[in-house]
Design goal:
The chain has helices spanning about 25-30, 40-50, 55-60, 65, 75-85; strands spanning about 5, 10-15. The chain is mainly alpha-helical. The chain has 2 domains: about 1-30, no CATH class; about 40-93, DNA polymerase, domain 1 (Orthogonal Bundle), CATH 1.10.150.20. It has a two-stranded antiparallel ribbon. A hairpin with a 5-residue loop joins strand 1 and strand 2. The radius of gyration is 15 Å and the shape is elongated.
């Protein structure tokens, strides 16, 4: 049964899980360009929370480190690798 919740910005939303993510805030924060815009919300949040907001920063991490981030799934990794390759970069080996 969905429970009414309120985020720190005052948005009211309903969730049936413990997930604290406000859908209104998430929509406002969606990337519209760059490699982060190619990812789903969980992967985007995982990278942002780890301070990875550029391809250069991403290239300083190994595949093992990236997949350990909560929110990075098997579909995110190929997207990230392709974005890196297009800029002549790759994950740390």
């Amino acid at each position: 049964m969905p429970v009414e919740k309120r985020c720190s910005k005052g948005h009211v939303f309903y969730k049936s899980s413990n997930c604290p993510v406000c859908p209104v805030c998430e929509k406002e924060n969606k990337a519209t360009s760059g490699f982060l815009s190619l990812l789903g919300a969980p992967a985007r949040r995982a990278l942002k929370n780890a301070g990875i907001t550029t391809l250069q920063k991403l290239s300083s991490f190994s595949e093992k480190e990236i997949v350990q981030l909560h929110g990075i799934g098997k579909t995110s990794l190929p997207v990230l690798e392709k974005a890196l390759a297009e800029k002549g970069l790759h994950l740390k080996r």
